[in-house]
Amino acid sequence: MTKPTRRTAALLSVLLLSAAAAGCSAAGQSGPARLAGGPTPSSAAGSPSARGFTLVASGDVLPHTSVIQRAANDAGGDGYDFKPMFSGVKPVVSAADLALCHMETIYGEEGGPFSGYPAFKSPPEVADALKATGYDGCSTASNHTLDDGGDGLRRTLDRFDKVGLKHAGSARTAAEAAGVTTYRAGSAKVAHLAYTYDTNGYPMPDGQPWAVNLMKQEKIIADARAARKAGADVVLVSVHWGTEWQTEPDETQLSLGKALTASQTGGRPDIDLILGTHAHIPQAYEKVNGTWIVYGMGDQVAGEMFNYSGARDMRGNYGSIGRFTFAPPAAAGQRWQVTKAEFVPQMMDLSTGRVVNLALHSEGEEYETAKEAVTEAVLGRGAAKDGLTMAK
């Protein structure tokens, strides 16, 4: 399903920005110079032509060996086809003005070899499927970003460029790392920043200390302020954080989330939304200091999951998609407001190898149990009172 209105607007935005600024970072990224100046007439506060937008964001794409084999089967022996895997959520993703995923693993060489846990190397065809599903870009900072060093990182971002996906959180060059990933959604300029708590002990590639963004409060705030100063109307922050298999956000999530949402410049919040990944299971949504935090969206795609006790844990195949509707500010200097917050419960059905939209399909004991578990986790910190609802 194509999105001509959004794509046309995005293309126009790129052409205008390119003409207005000299130079840019590597393909798929927009450097700070590309955002120079104030809002364009279409995004000016109170302008009749100002248009809101919908954002969709989803959890970890984590292709285990069984997931890779499923994609091989779906391709009928000719490579790997991950598109059928995402078909159940494609209507939700493709209908959004801006859709972001989290690509947790890196890609191997064309044709392999590929591997699952513990050091992942996924088929690059995953990126093709993400693009076909309707995603515009992904966060790429995770504890697995350096599973194959700088080569794996480069292959992944090269494939993103090839299929037309943007990315935030990892970089191939210093210039790319210094840039800001931006999108046009509605009439807003949207910046996407991404960070991870660690890289599983793998060091940064030699001479590339900027290869992966690490989760440091001061850096996140500084980057958000720089993006805002450069012209971003909305700043989104993806954070790979939390304690695996723990539904409740841990102390780091709570304290960092509170600090990030409290950070302001001139009375305006520096960050407009926080999107969490990593815990493998759904975690709560919560409005903190007037800003929505998704502590953890869970896994979107994963194979059979086992928790720390060694037991098979179905929660590792549960997740949520966050959908947020942003409206333009009424006056200059004010923030874009989230006027509607929704979640879509989902599940990776291992028997079919498909991601299931549980808001539409919850018949049967397995799906009903999954939907109830996701809903309980998502609403576990009182988000319903702030208006969060399940998407229809």
Explain this structure.
The chain has 392 residues and is of the alpha/beta class. It has a single domain, classed as Purple Acid Phosphatase, chain A, domain 2. Helices cover 27% and strands 23% of the residues. The chain contains ten helices and 17 strands. The protein has helices spanning 4-20, 65-74, 83-86, 90-95, 125-133, 149-163, 174-178, 217-229, 251-262, 365-378, and strands spanning 53-61, 98-103, 137-139, 166-168, 181-185, 188-196, 234-240, 264-265, 268-269, 273-277, 285-288, 291-294, 299-301, 318-327, 337-349, 354-357, 389-390. The strands form three sheets. Strands 1, 2, 3, 4, 13, 14, 15, 16 and 17 form a nine-stranded mixed sheet that branches. A six-stranded mixed sheet has the order 5-6-7-10-12-11. Strand 15 and strand 16 (354-357) form a beta hairpin. Helix 5 runs parallel beside helix 6. The longest helix has 17 residues, at 4-20. It is globular. Mean pLDDT is 90; it is low at 1-42.
